[in-house]
Design a protein that fits this description.
Shape: elongated
Number of strands: 3
InterPro entries: RNase_H-like_EbsB-rel (IPR052929)
Radius of gyration: 23 Å
Number of domains: 2
Strand order of the largest sheet: 1-2-3
Order of helices and strands: HEEE
Protein name: RNase H type-1 domain-containing protein
Structural class: alpha+beta
Number of helices: 1
Organism: Trifolium medium
Oligomer: single chain
């Protein structure tokens, strides 16, 4: 009989922690999603633009990277990854 109330408290605590973590994860995902929808801005006429992106582990180690060069019309010139 004593175990049942303790299990209920434990389940409620688990649910509370899950709700908090889910809310935090959604807020982070919303921030990331906003960043993904930024519109590309072309360079001045006669110039090229090189966009770069990297993937980084929590330890700060770069695990992947890529770059893409386009002209003022958005025309693809060259790209690379590692």
């Amino acid at each position: 009989v004593v175990i049942t109330p303790r299990l209920n408290v434990y389940n409620n605590a688990k649910e509370a922690i899950f709700d908090i973590c889910s809310k935090e994860a959604k807020e982070v995902a919303d921030d990331v999603q906003e960043q993904q929808y930024q519109q590309w801005v072309p360079p001045r006429q006669g110039w090229l633009k090189c966009n770069v992106d990297v993937g980084i582990l929590n330890s700060g180690r770069i695990i992947s990277g890529g770059w893409c060069i386009r002209d003022e019309n958005g025309q693809f010139i060259r790209a690379g990854t590692n």
